[in-house]
Amino acid sequence: MPERKIRYLGDPILKTAAAPVTRFGKSLQALIDDLMDTVDLPGRAGLAAPQIGVGLRAFSYKIDKNRGYVLNPELLEVSGAQEGDEGCLSVPDLYFPTPRRMSVTVRGVDVRNEPVTVSGREEMARCLQHEVDHLDGILYLDRLDAATRRRAMRAVRESSWFLPAGSRMMR
């Protein structure tokens, strides 16, 4: 499968809550294949369907030896706290300290509508939270404190990839 183009900040789909997956079949399998192929490229940890222009609650992840996907995810167990630099394929080349939970568990289903549970700590927990946020129309920039967010938005506006809201630009 070919890599799918990434949607950038400014594309309205990134700020829209994704719809639950309700149809399970060949087209869903094709979406999962695309999510997995696209996240497999170097330097990528996770990818939500809205980032490739699909408004469904689906994401893929690849952290160390953990690789997979979850449909219709919900965060179940969350504990602890961490803060570290976070980035996003839809906000390329910009990283800012983002507060997250240290440990999380996500429950959802697979392409056969069978239950799936994924748990993680540290980087894996950060990835799971980041991708579930995407499905809720939240970008990591929305989680920054006010001063850091102002600095981040200035950097976004100065980026060569950025087009103002209402414009679409893909990579």
Strand content: 25-35%
Describe the largest sheet.
Answer: 5 strands, antiparallel
- Strand elements, count: 7
Structural class label = alpha+beta
Shape: globular
CATH architecture: Alpha-Beta Complex
Kindly identify the CATH topology. Peptide Deformylase
C-alpha Rg, in Å? 15 Å
Order of helices and strands: HEEEEEEEHH
Gap from first CA to last CA: 17 Å
How many structural domains are formed by the residues? 1
Which regions contain 5 or more consecutive residues with pLDDT less than 50?
none
Which features would summarize this protein structure in a list?
single chain, 171 residues, alpha+beta, Peptide Deformylase, two-stranded antiparallel ribbon
SSE diagram, text form:
Elements: H1 26-39, E1 46-48, E2 58-63, E3 66-79, E4 82-88, E5 91-100, E6 103-109, E7 115-121, H2 123-135, H3 146-158
Antiparallel strand pairs: 1-2, 2-3, 3-6, 4-5, 6-7
